[in-house]
C-alpha cells in the first residue's frame, strides 16, 4: 500500500515537473485566462461543490470533529463567492515572471542582470480548509509554478471537486492539467513522499498548526518556507505618546484574537504605568481579556491580573489573553523580545527618533514597527495582493510571502562573443 | 568524547549567537577597522603563519596527502599577500546592512519598506585550504554575521594561527572575538553538531567536493547554501556566428579546466558541423583536450573522438575532456540542458533574437548567457566584489553568492498611532 502511494506520488511529481517547464514560459495572459476560467467553473459548479462538501461535513460530524474544525471545513455560498473573487483578484496582480532587472555592463564588457523565474514545483500541505486549495493554487499558478496540493483528509471530497474546476480552467487556457494537482489519497504516507522528493518538488509550504510545521521541517528533504508562530510584542517606551500607545496596544490585542500577528505580550516602561497601563487595563478588561502580569504588575494591579509564569512569555495565545511586563529601558525590551519572541512582528510606541532607530535595528523580527499595530503584518496590508503565508524563516522569504516569495532570480548575461581573459 | 565535542560546539554556537547581536548593529567603520586590523596582524605574523603551516604540511606529507591537496594546504608568502589583500578589498566593499529600500505609503496610511539585515550566524565547512578561512570570515564579518569556521583537519595549525590574527583584529576594533570562531577540534562529530544546531546557526555554507556537500545537505537541520556541481553547456545554434562560436567554446573549455563554470558539454546544431565543429575540434585537439562524441560525431570525426557514454552527459570533468553532441534544434538543446545540466551556467551562441529569448527563458540555470563564455559566471566578474560560492539552489541565493547572499530583509513599518480597522 505504502509502495503504491510512493509510486503514485512520484507520478504526480514527475507530471508536476513536466508541467512546470510549460508554466515557466507561459504568457501572463494565458495564466490569467486559466485563473478566470477556473473562477467561472467554480461559479457554474456551486451545486456540486456544496454536495461534495456536504459529504465531508457529514463524515466530519460522524468522526467527531470539533466546531472550529467543522467551521473551517465548511463551504458556504459566501465562501464560494470568496474563492471566485480570490481567483479573479490574483488574475489582476502584476506578473513577476520574466521581469529583468539591473541590466548593466561590467568591466569585461558583458552585460548582466537578473531575470525573475518561478521556483518550479511547490508542494502545499494544509489542514482541512478547502478555500486554501484555491488560494494556494492561484498564487502558484500566477507565479508560474506547478503545484501539488495535499489538504487535510477530512476535505477530500471538497478538494476533488475544486480540483476539477481548476483542471477545466487550465484546459480552457491550454495549460496542462498537471499544473495543479490535488493529492487524491488520504494515506498519510503521501505527505512523507511529497516532502522527500527533491527531484520533483522545489519547495514545501506547510500551512497549519505549529506541530504539523515542526514535523514537516524535521523530516523534509526539500526546502520548507515555514511559519512557526507569532509571539508578537508591543513595547510602550518612556517617550511614548500615551494616546497612541493605548490605541495601538488595544488594536493589536483585540481587533482579532486568532491571527498570528495579534499581540501576545505587552511590555511597558515603568514611567508609563499610570499614563498608559492603568487606562489600558480597564479597556482590555471591559473586552474580557485575561491579563497575566509580571511581579511588578501584580503589585500595582493586584485584583486585575493573575501571575504570569515563565512560560507565558513564550506563549502564542491566539485568544483573549495577554501577558504584561513592566521594565525599565528599551534595552530590556529588546532583550526580552529577542529572547522570547518568535521573530514575527514587534512594535515600539515612541516619539523618540533615536530609540525608534535602535528598536528597528536591534529587534530581529520579520516585521519591526514604530507606532503601528502589529495587526498590519500581512500580505494584503503590505500591498502584496495576496499571501501564501508569513515566513518566520530568514532565508529566501521573510515576513508575508506573496507572489515574489514563490519566485527566484537567475542571472542573464549578454555578450557579443565575449571571452574571459 | 563526542559528548564533550557537542558541549564544545554548543558553547561556540551560543557565543556566536551573542556576538551576532553585536555585529548586527555594528557600524560599517567598525567592521572595516576589524578587517584592516586583521590584515595588519596577518602581515605582522608572517613568520608564525608559515611556521604553523609548516607543521600542517609536515603532517600532511607524513599522512600521504596527494600533491593537489598539499598544494591547497600550503601557505606561501604570495598566498599570505593575497589573504591580506583580500581582507583590505572586502573593507572597501559597500556595506549592505541597514540599507532601507522601497519605503512607500500603503492605503492604510502606514509607510513600509525593507531593511537589509544579516542572517545571524553562518557556519562554513570547508576543506584544508587556509585561505578560505580568511575569505569566508571577511565576507561574513562585513555582512554583519558571526561565523563558525570548520576547515579540514589537515589545516588545523594554520587555521588556528589565522584565527589568532582575526581575533586580534576584532579586538582592536572593539568587536567580540567570538564574532569569528575557528573550530579547534579535529573531531568529525564537530561537523555533525554544527549542522544540527538551528538555535545557534542560521545557515551552513559548505565548500568542497560534491560528496561532502551532499552529505551535509542530507544531514543538516539548518538551511544550506550549496553548490553541487557545474555541468555547463555551450550550444552553437543554427544562427550562430561561427567565429564567435569557436572563440567562446574554446575559452569556455580551455581558459581553465578546473573551475565549476568551465564548459563540460558542447552542443552543436547539425548545420554548424563544418563551419564551427570541424575547426573547433582542431583547436581543442591542439590543446590536448580529449573529445567524447555522440554517434553522429563519431561518424564525422571517427579518428578524433572516442564514444561518449550516457554517463558522459552528466559528468563534471573539471579536466581537459569535453563531451560533444550534434542535434537538430534549439528545442533539443534546451531539453538536453534541462535534463543533464546542473542548473549552473549555460550559454547559447546565436545571432537570432527570438532564439536567444527562448533560451534565456527556458533554460533553468543560475546563469544563462548569450554569446558569452560560461567562464564569466563568478562573483568577481559579476561585480559582487567577492564570492563565498556559487549556489545551485533556487531558494534564497542563486548563482554567485556575494555579500547580499549572506543577508536577509525585514519589513520596517512606520506609523503615527495607526491601527487596523
TrEMBL record, chains A, B:
Aldehyde dehydrogenase domain sequence ranges: 12-285, 311-377
NCBIfam families: PRK00197.1, proA
Chief location bin: cytoplasm
Protein name as it appears in the record: Gamma-glutamyl phosphate reductase
PANTHER family for the chain: DELTA-1-PYRROLINE-5-CARBOXYLATE SYNTHASE, GLUTAMATE SEMIALDEHYDE DEHYDROGENASE
Keyword Kinase on entry: no
Cross-referenced InterPro entries: Ald_DH/histidinol_DH, Ald_DH_C, Ald_DH_N, Aldehyde_DH_dom, Glu-5-SA_DH, GPR_dom
Family per similarity comment: Belongs to the gamma-glutamyl phosphate reductase family.
Pfam families membership: Aldedh
A GO cellular-component term linked to this record: cytoplasm
Key words of the record: Amino-acid biosynthesis, Cytoplasm, NADP, Oxidoreductase, Proline biosynthesis
Amino acid at each position: 500500500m505504502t509502495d503504491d502511494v510512493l509510486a503514485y506520488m512520484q507520478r504526480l511529481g514527475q507530471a508536476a515537473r513536466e508541467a512546470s517547464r510549460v508554466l515557466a514560459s507561459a504568457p501572463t495572459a494565458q495564466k490569467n485566462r486559466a485563473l478566470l476560467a477556473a473562477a467561472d467553473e467554480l461559479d457554474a459548479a456551486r451545486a456540486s461543490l456544496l454536495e461534495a462538501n456536504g459529504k465531508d461535513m457529514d463524515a466530519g460530524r460522524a468522526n467527531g470533529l470539533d466546531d472550529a474544525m467543522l467551521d473551517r471545513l465548511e463551504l458556504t455560498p459566501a465562501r464560494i463567492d470568496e474563492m471566485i473573487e480570490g481567483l479573479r483578484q490574483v488574475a489582476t496582480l502584476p506578473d513577476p515572471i520574466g521581469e529583468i532587472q539591473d541590466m548593466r555592463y561590467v568591466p569585461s564588457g558583458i552585460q548582466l542582470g537578473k531575470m525573475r523565474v518561478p521556483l518550479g514545483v511547490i508542494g502545499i500541505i494544509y489542514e482541512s480548509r478547502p478555500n486554501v486549495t484555491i488560494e494556494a493554487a492561484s498564487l502558484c499558478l500566477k507565479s508560474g509554478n506547478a503545484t501539488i496540493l495535499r489538504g487535510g483528509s477530512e476535505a477530500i471530497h471538497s478538494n476533488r471537486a475544486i480540483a476539477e474546476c481548476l483542471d477545466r480552467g487550465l484546459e480552457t487556457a491550454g495549460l496542462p492539467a498537471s499544473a495543479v494537482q490535488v493529492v487524491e489519497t488520504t494515506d498519510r504516507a503521501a505527505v512523507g513522499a511529497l516532502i522527500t522528493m527533491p527531484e520533483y518538488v522545489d519547495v514545501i509550504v506547510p500551512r497549519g498548526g505549529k506541530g504539523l510545521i515542526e514535523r514537516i521541517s524535521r523530516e523534509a528533504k526539500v526546502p520548507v518556507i515555514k511559519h512557526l508562530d507569532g509571539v508578537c510584542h508591543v513595547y510602550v517606551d518612556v517617550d511614548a505618546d500615551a494616546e497612541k500607545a493605548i490605541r495601538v496596544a488595544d488594536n493589536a490585542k483585540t481587533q482579532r484574537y486568532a491571527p498570528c500577528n495579534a499581540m501576545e505580550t505587552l511590555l511597558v516602561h515603568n514611567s508609563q504605568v499610570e499614563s498608559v497601563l492603568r487606562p489600558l487595563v480597564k479597556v482590555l478588561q471591559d473586552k474580557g481579556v485575561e491579563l497575566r502580569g509580571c511581579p511588578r504588575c501584580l503589585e500595582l494591579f493586584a485584583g486585575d491580573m493573575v501571575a504570569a509564569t515563565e512560560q507565558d512569555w513564550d506563549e502564542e495565545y491566539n485568544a483573549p489573553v495577554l501577558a504584561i511586563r513592566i521594565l525599565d529601558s528599551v534595552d530590556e525590551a529588546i532583550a526580552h523580545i529577542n529572547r522570547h519572541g518568535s521573530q514575527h512582528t514587534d512594535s515600539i510606541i515612541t516619539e523618540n527618533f533615536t530609540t525608534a532607530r535602535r528598536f528597528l535595528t536591534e529587534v530581529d523580527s520579520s516585521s519591526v514597527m514604530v507606532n503601528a499595530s502589529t495587526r498590519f503584518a500581512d500580505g494584503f496590508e503590505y500591498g502584496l495582493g495576496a499571501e501564501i503565508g508569513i515566513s518566520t524563516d530568514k532565508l529566501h522569504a521573510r515576513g508575508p510571502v506573496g507572489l515574489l516569495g514563490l519566485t527566484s532570480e537567475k542571472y542573464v548575461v549578454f555578450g557579443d562573443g565575449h571571452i574571459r581573459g
